[in-house]
Amino acid sequence: MPAAKTSSPALICGDDEFAVKQHAKQLYQEWSEEIGGMDHEIIEATVSNSGEALAAVARLREALQTLPFFGTGKVIWLRDCNFLGDERVASAQAVTESLAGLAEELKHFDWARHRGIRLLISAGKVDKRKTFFKTLDKIGSVETFAGWSADDRDWAERAERAAQAAVRERKKEISQEALAELVNRVGPNPRQLDNEVEKLCLFVRDRKEIEAGDVHSVCVQNKTARAFALGDALGDRDLPRLLRRLDEELWEVKFDSKKSEIGLLYGLIAKVRAMLLLKELLREGWIKPELDYNRFKAQLQHVPADKLPGDRRYNPLALNPYVLYKALPQIKRYSEAELVRAMDLLLRCNQRLVSSGLDETLVLQQALVQMITPQAAAA
């Protein structure tokens, strides 16, 4: 991401709303301190209709045309703009025409002459096909902060770096195990991650370092972490806890349209697959059982990547290292044959969920009981 040019407009945008707001605020403060004076303007640009969007653009035009009364310049911040993407308001013809007109004005504004005028725009998703974005990208600087996704291979590393930075800002330290547990609980959610760091720092008070026990005590588990909890109960071969977790997840399915029984099943498949892959890493001698998380994580960096599948579903290095670390003691509870059998049971469960009219809860419960029951006992 290029540094913002001080003599031309700067656009900070992206799906990572928290990072966009933090960086824009920091840049605004830096520019204001550098220029000095009292003429700086913040124009709120979170709108709910086209009329409000047009009013925000009009205020921006007025701010650009009004010379500073005090000092040698001023910073204009169009803050949290939500009509530069594909939103309903952004598609209104009047807004589109107004933004196109503003783009022309910015293109012909004498930024070299008015070096004290700084324009900062912060926004969420931006449509890069539109004239306004293309103009800013050409005459100014654009910084994009992509949101975190569980599908991104490096989301956990990015989350750990963000959490460490947030902890250090508050003059604290955090152990590697606590950091991994925190990221595992929060998932790819920057805003919640920062909130949880704030809670932890308040919780430990005068203590310098945050430990894993602190995370267990005060940090919430979001949907991603609760899904991990279902898999952990399976890995621990703890049937009562597994059935309780399943009931909790199935209850949420009733009220959350984004969740489904098939989704829960795929999460269990991912857990069993991770345990199988971990067994294979141990069998090949690429890693050794290690109780210390730092040393375990370091081992993964030396696993020969060219020996692993290109498909992320079957590549253990594509998984969150902490997920593998937590599975280490769990794989001792299953033989390789039992894990292979578990995958077969999950496949059958998938077929029954899709093609039969049986109760989904009963189908999942039966599959889990069969998976946890030792083969000898089942026979």
Uncertain residue ranges = 1-6
Q: Measured on Cα atoms, how large is the radius of gyration?
A: 26 Å
Q: In CATH's first tier, which class of the largest domain applies? A: Mainly Alpha
The percent range for helix content is 55-70%
Major pleated sheet: 5 strands, parallel
Number of strands: 7
CATH topology of the largest domain: Zinc Finger, Delta Prime, domain 3
SSE string = EHEHEHEHEHEHHEHHHHHHHHH
Q: Please, what is the average pLDDT?
A: 86
Question: Can you describe what's shown?
Answer:
This protein is of the alpha/beta class and 379 residues long. It folds into 3 domains: 135 residues, Rossmann fold (3-Layer(aba) Sandwich), CATH 3.40.50; 64 residues, Helicase, Ruva Protein, domain 3 (Orthogonal Bundle); 156 residues, Up-down Bundle (Zinc Finger, Delta Prime, domain 3). It has 16 helices and 7 strands. The strands form 2 sheets. Strands 2-3-4-1-5 form a 5-stranded parallel β-sheet, sandwiched between helices. It has a two-stranded parallel ribbon with strand order 6-7. Helix 3 runs parallel beside helix 4 and helix 10 runs antiparallel to helix 15. The longest helix is centred in the last third of the chain and has 24 residues. The chain is elongated and about 80 Å long. The N terminus is likely disordered.
